[in-house]
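re: ur question from earlier - yeah i can do the single chain one, its not a big deal. heres the input i used so u can compare w yours
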Amino acid sequence: MIFKHAPILFFAIVVLSHSVVAEKPVPTHADVSYGAHERNVFDIWITPSDKSTPLVIYIHGGGFRNGNKNTITEDSLKQFQEAGLSVAAIHYRLSGTGPYPIMMEDAARCLQTIRSRAKEWNLDADKVACYGGSAGAGISLWLGFHEDLADSQSDDPIARQSTRITALATRNGQSTYDLRDFRKIFNVPDLPNGEAHFPMFAVTDATEWNDPHVQELMEDASPINHLTKDDVPVYMNYTRGNLFVTRETQVGVWVHHVKLGLHLQKAMKKLGIECSVVSPEHPETRYGSFEAFLIEKLTNS
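and the output i got, formated as tokens:
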């Protein structure tokens, strides 16, 4: 008779086990607007503190075509808040809305908007880091290396805020968006091109990659081209090993390849800037995780 209600008991156990799994905390402020477009919004989790808190900004991936700020993980959020950091997660306009540089400019404007409310939210405006994967990694790198976009002469107080950050971390990120660089890095002169690779350039025909305007956009969008000796430390994580790339290699492999991180690391090393690259062939020993890296840079500097 004890097994008569076993299915019900099993159901109860399953329900209970799911009920004890912690859910992602509700943002202190959700869908805060920073612009006119519907995707110009961010969430922020303000960590209570007697002193102003450093801030970490999560920038989602999705190939510039899609993606969502809700993909911020509960584990990362928990680690940051337990270390005394506040956290934001942002949306930005996608390639279906328009070409580069709207994605990067949106992230910069969002950063400026948050900085403009630092006193209200008890944030340390001088200690801000960014992180993200794929497209979010590229945006984070672009922000980390680009010259300050603050306009001190603007009538808009938000536009007068700095866009410079303290540190950044990436996952499967791109140090360049220039197809010519990819061909050199992988030594594949005929590496295929097409709109599917980098939709943010609004290229619809393969011949357009040779257009001077498109090439100018590729150069400007590439974070490594903005790198200078006063830029911030970087932690780059790659999930795949150093796979051999040929013309037939899937785009998703070479566009997220560890060689892109090693390419940047070499350039940063020449300038004396810290750049950790983590992959199956490059185990990380100092920090242990990108969260630990960002926490150290924001709390020990």
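The radius of gyration is 21 Å. not sure if urs matches, ping me
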